[in-house]
Amino acid sequence: MFPLADRKLVEVCYxxxxxxxxxxxxxxxxxIDVLRATSAIASALHNGVDKIIPVSSVEEARAYQAQGYIAxxxxxxxxxxxxxxxxxxxAFMDESLKGKTVVLTTTNGTKAIQMASDRKTVVIGCLNNLxxxxxxxxxxxxxxxxxxxxxxxxxxxxxxxxxGAIADILLESRKFRADEDSTVAAKFIYRSAKQHLWSFxxxxxxxxxxxxxxxxxxxxxxxxLNTIDxxxxxxxxxxxxxxxxx
Amino acid sequence: MFPLADRKLVEVCYxxxxxxxxxxxxxxxxxIDVLRATSAIASALHNGVDKIIPVSSVEEARAYQAQGYIAxxxxxxxxxxxxxxxxxxxAFMDESLKGKTVVLTTTNGTKAIQMASDRKTVVIGCLNNLxxxxxxxxxxxxxxxxxxxxxxxxxxxxxxxxxGAIADILLESRKFRADEDSTVAAKFIYRSAKQHLWSFxxxxxxxxxxxxxxxxxxxxxxxxLNTIDxxxxxxxxxxxxxxxxx
Lengths: 246, 246
Fold this sequence. Notes:
2 copies of one chain form a homodimer. Chain A is α/β, with parallel strands linked by helices and about 250 residues long. Chain A has helices at about 20, 35-45, 60-65, 110-115, 130-140, 155-170, 180-195, 195-200, 205-210, 215-220; strands spanning about 10-15, 30, 50-55, 70-75, 80, 100-105, 120-125, 145-150, 175, 230-235, 240. Chain A has one domain (about 5-240): Alpha-Beta Complex (putative 2-phosphosulfolactate phosphatase).
């Protein structure tokens, strides 16, 4: 049904620093920061937050705060002083945030979102919305780049695994193809990891960092597959919930 | 015997473009370009070539050629016009090259070697000299960075697998530790691949490119483990065979 020539590309880029090497051919970019920015964003919108405005710097977040916005800021896994919360998904589930707009800056994820905003469509991926996101991407059937946020321009395991999972599902649909070794490698890492995600990620430096920060509850939440069907999408500089009739 | 604090680092960097993010802590850099530069260099020295002078540009190679040097140049998998050979390991085994100095420039590998020359020790790795190289690295017991040449600043599978193999062997010695997710991921890719390296690399874009160039014989040679015990090392700008009393 889909000969190779009709298949769309799906590729995984491991870090924002490599984005320029990949981006040209893609109409859709999926930004991933499993621990924890994109998991938090998806959960926030799923739980009734109206909009998330992603900003790159703490200064921008402060400027919004000065204008009366609710703003959240995380650097190196911790809440930045002067902000009520950082990127914990649980913080974004608070009843008081329903219907509200939240400004967010994080170490890696919001920078990747800003960077990807030069493409036509930017959606937000995590393990929590994996299957719903893949169903959407298969239905859209466009050249799709998965941009992992990484950790300070280096690869991280959890984003690579999530990117590999998306690529694997899209490739299995036989409507997509991959040309890059980064995509093939991510798919194999995901397949190695998927039966024992938690113990696999014990190897991850990032997870070790997070254990020090006492956020095991967050980590368990972020590493659980298919708990929500919300797909966050960037529209006019803000992230909102994709409506099925969009 | 080696508590964690006494272990040395072994890390894998996937591309020259990320080298600056890694290099500071390392005394030894292992440069890898399995298909085909570092496999060719190791084979050349193993078969009696005296020295390889790695240069980054075709222009530099031409300048040496004009001075009477034997020079080899490869770009995009093919021999550059005006040069007798590129980076085929078999070309470097020619009897006429015994005892000679050869100047070499390749698409990825020689650039990575030049880049790594800011560290104290630079050695050359490939699958052909895997075990001999690891024995040396374990004996030296210094902070060791494996620099994969990649393909035009993107990751490639064969270098990542080779880097993962070296990291795996060093970590198994219990004298080394790894902090980076890139290293953990490379180790898992190697473990996924090692029982069926040839079929695994069928997924590799790079190998597909090389099949088009009709160099299957070279590819099979480069993907064969532990055929030689030569360790090439950079000394005063030229790559020579490491002597055991070095």
